[in-house]
């Protein structure tokens, strides 16, 4: 096989590939064995038609597409590897020659990983982040714990308040007609949670058990259902129940209930220590973000659109997975948030582009500085994963190698080492 390539635009290359006629013959034989299983010829059982009779009846050309499908993926892959190209999108293939007894020629046009022109990345000045723990932060953490351990009590009389959990029936109408998905029965809604359309929960505040109320709202202009976006609606609401949180007192008994400590002061000291560890980690992450941002800002790179689309797709899937862990799906999220997938994609696009840019620049720095993930690094990472998954590291290695994920782990290690290199060579203001 012969393969040559040339750059035809900034991030686009054209690859000319020529495969020997002998391989074309082998591919045609394989194609015949595949196709003959599906054809019916009078006088022959399926799959038993002689090659000569098949070709005289259907023509050798009937095998060409299957033979191309057999040859092309490996030929393209070999050409990419031979010239150390890194495609970021599917290629456009143009078959220039394919016939029995002749070489197979095709041209592949593909977008490749862009080149990065690095700027200054050593000696970058980053601002230190203070990681001291303030008293109000400890108080806020204690309040969160109070909320988590609050008891719910049923309120028999009086108006619903912000923070109450209400049980309601609701039916939504636009232009006097009920719309799909706009109704619910005995739905539990925490007032102030902002889980419903803006303006809805605020109008439930003040209702009492047994009350009926028409709630007027206007759907957001960016609402996921286009036929509702920007339209005024009326929700007919009935309030069935009110449940109110009763927070436990912050005392020694509370500390005993939620921790291993006997006094509230001991527990607060432990909380402060844990908050300090967390804030130190956050401060370190803030420094990492700052130094990477500066190195990226100093570099010059033009990002191909497919890389941004791919990263956005990944972020959408990751977001969907996290929603499922919380017992929610995308449809429900769009209903509650008033967003659509296109709006969500637009919101994520900026972060996706930044991620791609950062990774490209970090990869270029790693190559410039000879930073790689060696065997020791990989073994150390596998040992960490072994403890997390409670499985032997060699077993995990075998799984990752079988799934083709071992290179992703190495890339992640190299990325972290490169960020550490930037921090070690930075100056803190």
Number of domains: 3
Tell me the CATH architecture of the largest domain: Orthogonal Bundle
Helix segment count? 13
Structural class: alpha+beta
Q: Write down the overall geometry.
A: extended
Output the CATH topology of the largest domain. Trigger factor, domain 2
How many strands appear in the DSSP assignment? 11
Biggest sheet statistics: 5 strands, antiparallel
* H and E string: EEHHHEEEHEEEHEEHHHHHHHHE
**How large is the share of residues in beta strands?**
15-25%
Could you estimate the helical fraction of the residues in percent?
A: 40-55%
Can you characterise this structure?
- By secondary structure, this protein is an alpha+beta fold.
- It has three domains: 2-111, Trigger factor ribosome-binding domain (Alpha-Beta Plaits), CATH 3.30.70.1050; 151-246, Chitinase A, domain 3 (Roll); 257-428, Trigger factor, C-terminal domain (Trigger factor, domain 2, Orthogonal Bundle).
- 48% of the residues lie in helices and 20% in strands.
- The protein contains 13 helices and eleven strands.
- It has helices spanning 21-35, 51-58, 64-82, 135-148, 200-204, 252-258, 264-297, 305-325, 330-337, 341-369, 375-389, 393-403, 406-424, and strands at residues 2-9, 12-19, 92-97, 104-111, 125-126, 151-154, 165-174, 177-190, 212-218, 232-246, 427-428.
- Strands 6, 7, 8, 9 and 10 form a five-stranded antiparallel beta sheet that branches.
- β7 (165-174) and β8 (177-190) form a beta hairpin.
- α8 crosses α10 and α10 packs across α13.
- The chain is extended.
- The relative contact order is 0.10.
């Amino acid at each position: 096989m012969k393969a040559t390539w040339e750059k035809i635009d900034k991030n686009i290359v054209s690859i000319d590939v020529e495969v020997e006629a002998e391989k074309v013959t082998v591919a045609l034989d394989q194609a015949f064995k595949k196709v003959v299983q599906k054809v019916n010829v009078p006088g022959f059982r399926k799959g038993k038609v002689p090659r000569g009779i098949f070709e005289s009846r259907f023509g050798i050309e009937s095998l060409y597409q299957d033979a191309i499908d057999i040859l092309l993926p490996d030929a393209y892959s070999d050409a990419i590897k031979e010239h150390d190209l890194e495609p970021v999108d599917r290629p456009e293939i143009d078959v220039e020659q394919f016939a029995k007894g002749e070489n197979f020629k095709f041209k592949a046009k593909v977008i490749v990983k862009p080149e990065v022109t690095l700027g200054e990345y050593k000696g970058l000045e980053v601002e230190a982040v203070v990681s001291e723990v303030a008293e109000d932060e400890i108080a806020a953490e204690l309040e969160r714990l109070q909320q988590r351990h609050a008891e719910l009590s049923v309120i028999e009389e009086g108006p619903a308040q912000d923070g109450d959990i209400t049980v309601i029936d609701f039916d939504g109408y636009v232009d006097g007609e009920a719309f799909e998905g706009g109704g619910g029965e005995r739905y539990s809604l925490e007032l102030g949670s902002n889980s419903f359309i803006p303006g809805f929960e605020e109008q439930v505040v003040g209702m009492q058990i047994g009350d009926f109320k028409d709630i007027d709202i206007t759907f957001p202009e960016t609402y996921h259902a286009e036929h509702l976006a920007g339209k005024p609606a009326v929700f007919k609401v009935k309030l069935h129940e009110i449940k109110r949180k009763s927070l436990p007192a912050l005392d020694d008994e509370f500390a005993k209930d939620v921790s291993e400590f006997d006094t509230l002061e001991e527990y607060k000291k432990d909380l402060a220590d844990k908050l300090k560890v967390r804030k130190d980690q956050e401060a370190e992450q803030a420094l990492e973000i700052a130094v990477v941002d500066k190195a990226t800002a100093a570099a010059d790179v033009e990002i191909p659109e497919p890389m941004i689309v791919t990263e956005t797709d990944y972020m959408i899937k990751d977001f969907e997975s996290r929603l499922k862990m919380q017992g929610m799906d995308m449809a429900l999220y769009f209903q509650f948030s008033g967003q659509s997938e296109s709006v969500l994609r637009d919101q994520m696009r900026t972060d996706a582009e930044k991620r791609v840019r950062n990774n490209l620049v970090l990869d270029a720095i790693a190559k410039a500085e000879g930073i790689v993930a060696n065997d020791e690094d990989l073994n150390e990472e596998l040992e960490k994963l072994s403890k997390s998954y409670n499985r032997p590291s060699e077993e995990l290695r075998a799984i990752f190698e079988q799934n083709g994920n071992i290179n992703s782990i190495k890339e992640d290690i190299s990325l972290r080492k490169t960020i550490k290199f930037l921090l070690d060579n930075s100056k803190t203001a």
